[in-house]
Amino acid sequence: MSGILPATFVPGFHDEEQVRQMVYNDLGKTGLKVSKISFGTGVFCYAYNDVNVEKCRATLIRALKHGINYIDTAPYYGQGEAEEVLGKILEGIPRKAYYIATKVGRYAKEWENQFNFSAEKTKQSINESLKRLKLEYVDVLQIHDIEFASSIDLILNETIPAVQEIVKSGKARFMGVTGYPVRTLVECIQKSVIKFDTVLSYARLTMFDDTLNQFLPIFKKHNLGIINAAVNSLGLLTNLGEREWHVGTPHIKEVCGQARKLCLQNNVELGKLAVWHSLQQPGPDTTLIGIDSVEVVNYNLEVLHNGLTTHEKVLYEDVLEIFKNNLKEKHWENHEVKKYWDYIKSLS
């Protein structure tokens, strides 16, 4: 719904006209009304960029003033770097002006120390995140990439009860879960006696992978706020292309490369097509996009408010044809998990 002023509106800080243009949706049953586009900060760290705090500040403030009101981060992003950068920026922004989510469970760059879903580490992690963010609480605390846990029982018996304690303590308002294999998210949600408030699925409702759609009714049945993240497939669906660490299969990368080449030849940003595609999909409450510059804020707002040009729509259909005719697999599910556990076993 557009035309409204959400609870996050702050007179004197926001551009009221721009805020009224933004579409806001209920985030499940949380009571939060979140912008249709939300702000991902994975790009506020070395994994994507050489971080410039002032550039990040200008980017986030531009987004907030134009009505984007949901920010997502994690201690894993740059091993705390993204949260530290955010903390420096948020000091000068009214706390009422945004909702913010962070995560627990995934931390270090190196695999041997990357995951820890224990209750002790979970409780320690939220304290460290709040210190970096310079906040007293976050709105949503999410368990990060649960498919890497040694078993679902660890998540059910340790991590979830610990997050529930954190919510009861007031350090977080709501709890959520994230991951790449959507079936694993469903299994966790259905088996947990403690109810989640949100679910974040990434790179599973894109121009070439619509897996999330088949599970949306389950998430809706559980009254979950649904966050559709990484609609650019972690860079695959952009003119810049994926970073060297991307875990997608060679075949998927090759076909996305064909789409990228066509867009470059026609002076169209593939990322804009990818964002527009995902914004048209019914079901998710917000579309979470990594945003690293004012220019990226502007083009995402442009595609939300005005859609695609006639020229871009032609290219959009051509790109869909490339995927339809050439793509023989649409995801890299379990590839990274297998590599991770093969490595961990090799250590012993």
TrEMBL record:
Superkingdom: Eukaryota
SUPFAM superfamilies documented for this protein: NAD(P)-linked oxidoreductase
Every NADP-dependent oxidoreductase domain range: 36-311
Any Pfam family hit: Aldo_ket_red
PANTHER family the UniProt entry points to: GH17980P-RELATED (PTHR42686:SF1)
Protein name, UniProt field: NADP-dependent oxidoreductase domain-containing protein
Protein source organism: Hypothenemus hampei (Coffee berry borer)
